Structures are given as C-alpha cells and as structure tokens.
Amino acid sequence: xxxxxxxxxxxxxLAAGAVVLYALPYALGSYAIHVVDVAIIFALLAIGLGLVxxxxxxxxxxxxxxxxxxxxATALLTTQAGYGFWxxxxxxxxxxxxxxxxxxxxxLRVQSHxxxxxxxxxxxxxxxxxxxxxxxxxxxxxxxxxVPPLFGVDLESEYLYYYLEVVVFAxxxxxxxxxxxxxxxxxxxxxxDDPLAAGAIGxxxxxxxxxxxxxxxxxxxxxxxxxxxxxxxxxxxxxxIANMFLLxxxxxxxxxxxxxxxxxxxxxxxxxxxxLVEFSTYAQLGYGVVVVLMVVFAPTGLAGIPRRLEQMxxxxxxxxxxxxxxxxxxxAVAEGDVRAPSLEIREISKHFRGVKALxxxxxxxxxxxxxxxxxxxxxxxxxxxxxxxxLYKATAGQVLVDGQIVSGATSYQLSHLGIARTxxxxxxxxxxxxxxxxxxxxxxxxxxxxxxxxxxxxGVWKRDRDLRARADALLxxxxxxxxxxxxxxxxxxxxxxxxxxxxxxxxxxxxxxxxEPAAGLNGEEVRQLSEIVRSIRDRGxxxxxxxxxxxxxxxxxxxxxxxxxxxxxxxGTPAEVVATPAVIEAYLGDxxxxxxPMTLPTEVQ
Length: 605
Ligand SMILES: Nc1ncnc2c1ncn2[C@@H]1O[C@H](COP(=O)(O)OP(=O)(O)OP(=O)(O)O)[C@@H](O)[C@H]1O
Prior knowledge:
Helix content is 56%, strand content 10%. It folds into 3 domains: 19-239, no CATH class; 341-418 and 509-592, Rossmann fold (3-Layer(aba) Sandwich), CATH 3.40.50.300; 426-507, P-loop containing nucleotide triphosphate hydrolases (Rossmann fold, 3-Layer(aba) Sandwich). A hairpin with a 2-residue loop joins strand 4 (396-401) and strand 5. The strands form 2 sheets. Strands 6-7-8-3-9-10 form a 6-stranded mixed beta sheet, with helices on both faces. A 4-stranded antiparallel beta sheet has the order 2-1-4-5, covered by helices on one side. It is of the alpha/beta class. It contains 24 helices and 10 strands. It is elongated. Bound molecules: adenosine-5'-triphosphate. The site of adenosine-5'-triphosphate has 12 residues, from strand 2 and helix 14. Keywords: ATP-binding, Cell membrane, Membrane, Nucleotide-binding, Transmembrane, Transmembrane helix, Transport. The chain crosses the membrane at residues 7-25, 31-52, 83-105, 112-131, 160-184, 205-227, 259-276, 282-305.
C-alpha cells in the first residue's frame, strides 16, 4: 500500500510528535516533569468531558466526581483491602463506569440545564461523602498508596511514570477520535445539534445520552487510576467544584467540539496554572475572564476558530459555483409489490392546559395515498403531526399503522416502525455537513450494538464506507451532490427543504409526514417538489402533507382533510372539499387564501 500526500503528512507529524514526546523528559527538571504528568491527567479528563459536552451536547458537572470515585477506589482497595495496584485500578475503573451509569440515569428523563444541576448535585454528594466518611480519611484523605509495579520498571520515578502516562493517553485519545468518527459519534453530534430531529430519524436519545456519560466516566476512571499511582495520596480538595470549573474552562477554551482542542486547552491551562501558582486568587479571576471572552467571541473555543472560518467561507461560496441538480425519480415499484401502509387517526385529542389544539380527530389515509391536511393558522395541523410522530402524547385517541396501534411509542421507536417527518421550521443538524445529516438517518443500527465501537472493531470502517456510498447515491438522486460537504445553515431555504426530505427518505420510511414543504419555495421549486412527492409515493410510501399552498395541495392530493380550531370541518376529495360551505367560510373565504389557485388534482379530474 502506498501513502498519498495527506497520509504521508499525517504519518510524518505522528512520527515527529512521538519523537518530541519521547525526548521531552530529557529537557525537564524534576518539578517540571511532575507538572507535565499532572497536565496529562487533566488532558484525559478533558477528553471525557469533551466527548459528553462538546460531541454529545450534554451538560456534565460530574466529571471531577468520576475522577474522584476512581482515585478513591484505587486508594481504598490498595491501602485497606490489600489489593495489588493494577487489580485495584481495574476495579476502580468499574466503579467509575458504574458512577457514569448512575449519573447517566437521570439523563434518561431530564435534559439540558436540569441535567447540569443534577450532575452538579451528584458531584457535591460525592465530595460530601469523602469529607465526612472516616473510611475515606475525611479532609486528610488517604496516603500510602503503593507504587504501581510494572515489569521491574521503577514507576516511583516521575520520568518513567511520564512514559506510562503517554502510552495510556495516546491510546485513550486514539479511541476517542475513533468513536467521534464512527456512526456513534455522528449520532452524538446529531443529538447535540437537534435532539428532536435526531429522535425523529431514529436516534435513541435517552440511551445515547447515557452512553455519553458512561464514555465520560471511562476517561474519568482512567485519569483517577493514573492520578492515584502518580501522587499516591488522595484528598477531597483535588475533586473540588473549583477544579471541576477549571476542567470546564480547559474544555471551553480549547474547543469542546474537538478532542484535540480539549487536550490543548487542558495542557495549556494546567501549565499556566502552575506558572501562576503564587497568584492563585488572580488566576481564578483570570480563568473566569478568559472563559467569558471565549464564550462570547469564540463559543467553539480555539479549535473551533478554523472551523468557523471555514463555515464563513462556505457561506460566501454557497450558491456561487454549486447548483441544485435535478431530482432523479425513484424506480417505480410494480403495482403488486407496493407495500405502503394505511394510517388511521382515531378520535385523537390533544389539549395543552386550557387550549384544545385537537378535538376527537378521526380520518384514514389510504395505503400509498398522498393525503393533504389543510386549515387556517393555529387549526392544529402541526400538533397532529407531532402526535403521529411521537413528539407529543395524545390526550386521548389512537394512531394506527396498518391496523396496529402505534400511539404511545416514542419518536425514535416510530422512526424504526417506518414513520418519518420533516419540520415546518427546518431542523437540520447545523454543525454537520449535508452528507453527515443524511448519514445519521441512513444508519439504522440500534443502540444495543454500540459495544462494537467499544471493541474498536475494524468492521466499523467497512460499514461506514458502505453507508457513505449510499449517502452519496441519495444525494445524487436529490440533486444535492454539490452541497455534500457544506453545512446546511449556509444554504438557501429551498435547498434546505430538499435536504430535509432527503434525510427523511434516508431512514427508509413507509409513511412520510411533510410539514409545509413548499413554504418559501418559488414556482419552479414547487413544481419540482410535486415531482419528488409523487415519486416517493410511487415507491410505496404513504405521504401526508400539511400545506398552505392550495394549488400544490389541490393538484397533488387524492384526499384532503380540512381542520379548523382543532376539529375536522371537511374530509374528502379536493373537489368535495372545495365545495363544502364550512370550508369556504372558515378557510377559503380568508382573503389571503382565496388568492391561491384552486385547480383540481389531475389524478381525480
Ligand atoms: N406546545 C404547545 N403548548 C401550548 N399550546 C400549543 C402548543 N403547540 C401548539 N399549541 C397551540 O395549539 C394550537 C394549534 O397549533 P398548531 O401549531 O398545531 O397549528 P397549525 O395549524 O399547525 O398552525 P400553523 O399553520 O400556523 O403552523 C394553537 O392554538 C397553538 O397555540
């Protein structure tokens, strides 16, 4: 195998990095090597925090507690239970993972800032426990942790300990980078960018959140064992909330969305902290100011600056050379092979405290139909889609797919049952490329298979290559090839709408819910959209479409349901519906709507 330019460059930088890391101790005095050893431990902690906060988007203020659990477990097991260092270390890793699972449990139910409060509470509870438990030595901590034995290498020397740390650190960083690049990492980034949209394309959000915490605790655990072996003394002050915030500062300054950034931030701040040790009060203030400045001016940290510049360049270039291609219709499925399901809405009600958004709505969508849902603003259309796609639980009533009750299921379960949707206010994953947006939806593996990533399986790459080939084929079908490597936020509205439909189709749905797909599109784009929707239907997908563009609905839909104030006022063919007095009164009488062309669909004429 021969390496090309970028491969050679990467190999050369890796080799140069290895030489520098090898030679570094020769240039350092005994105190400096101690500082570097501690900085590496902080870097491990920062990788874990970067994974859970920067990649998966979950607030975690318990990272310092994972570190503490593993340090204290190593200390207790070696000094009081008589275990050898490495056995104790292994058990301590288990304890940290268990703590990760425990902290991740609330993540099954609560999110964002609530999760921050819960994790902070758990970190404080841990601190309280070690300070007040005689077994843990109280404020004095535990000393006399034995030197880790290693094939006769004297790890009491901090120089030799450095090499052990570098090896563990390199492996841990490589593993983290591997995870970020796998479909697991992609799903975590999708969850960070938009958990609602991620759930709607099948990402099992609660379990993924928990996985992120367990991953973070793995790094906390590793750091804890190494710390216990290095310092051979543990005390509560190391695991204080002040240090948790220092860790946060490292990740924010370095760049939480990049593991390299987290490492640079951790090592940089750990070294600066040592230089400023005599001015610790001012140093704390300094960190605070730096963090505030970063959050305001460079929210994605130092590592995020090149990426932001790239995005700005994308924005300027978007549309300059790239062009939206033609849609290539799906090969039509033979009539007998069409397996599109029916969708039945049975007496669905949805109330928000006083507001009755939906009132005993019942209608049926025939298998393989394109069914329109129209109605004035606030009539309950989007609420209906939210109920069908599992974002809202209905107050009463049922949703049935092919006669099977599906209401009550979560949105990711419904996605796996074959229901996909788009959103009225576009919900693309903003920090991911268009190709990655598609890839998240294409990957249908369930979260119970994530152990494959933990085992670092080489098969993961082959699967990913296959997924990429499928993503590129889908992008070509939707005429989006030119935008594959662009972030969607920089693209015009019409293109974003098409990406959302392509993403929904990537999840291979049997039922597709389109929420105002023609909003903001020009005449030609609406014509192309009709072609796309018909082709999707011909492929064997049942389509339900909410639209204000009456011309679009009337020419496309075989049947239309009209809602007003949460009730059905008409349900039938477009011809029947437009002739209903209640519709004319409630909807078509509306001046803005009456200006829409009211032609009948070609299918029913
Ligand atoms: N999460 C919510 N909490 C409280 N009220 C809500 C919520 N979602 C919708 N509603 C209310 O339910 C009613 C129906 O809203 P919905 O968004 O479903 O209407 P719509 O027909 O989709 O309107 P539009 O055409 O403007 O999108 C409105 O009165 C709205 O204020």
